[in-house]
Amino acid sequence: MTAFAATIYRRLVVDDAIWVYASSSAAVLRLDGVSDSVLSAFPPKTGCTIEDGLALASASPHTADIPRGDIESTFRELVGLGLLRPVGEKLPPVATVPPMPYPLTTLVINVTNTCNLSCTYCYEYGEDKLADRERSDGSARRSAMTADTAIESIDFLFRESVGRPEITVTFFGGETLLNWAVIESAVTHARNKGRLENRKVNFSLTTNATLLTDRIIDFLTEHQFGINISIDGEEGDHDRHRKFKSGQGSYEVILPRVKALLAKNKAARGRPIGARVTLTRGTKDVRGLFRHLTEDLGFDEVGLAPVTAAKDRDYAFEPTDYHLLVDAFGSLANDYVDAAVTGKHHGFSNLSDLLRELHTGTNKAHPCGAGLGLLGVSTEGDLGLCHRFVESGEHEIGSIHSGIDNEKRTAFLEAGHISKRVDCHSCFARPICSGGCYHEAYVRTGDASAPNLHACDWIRAWADIGLKSYARIMERNPSWFDRHEVPT
Ligand code: SF4
Ligand code: SF4
Question: For domain 106-407, which CATH number applies: 3.90.25.10, 3.20.20.70, 2.40.30.10, 3.30.1330.10?
Answer without folding.
Answer: 3.20.20.70
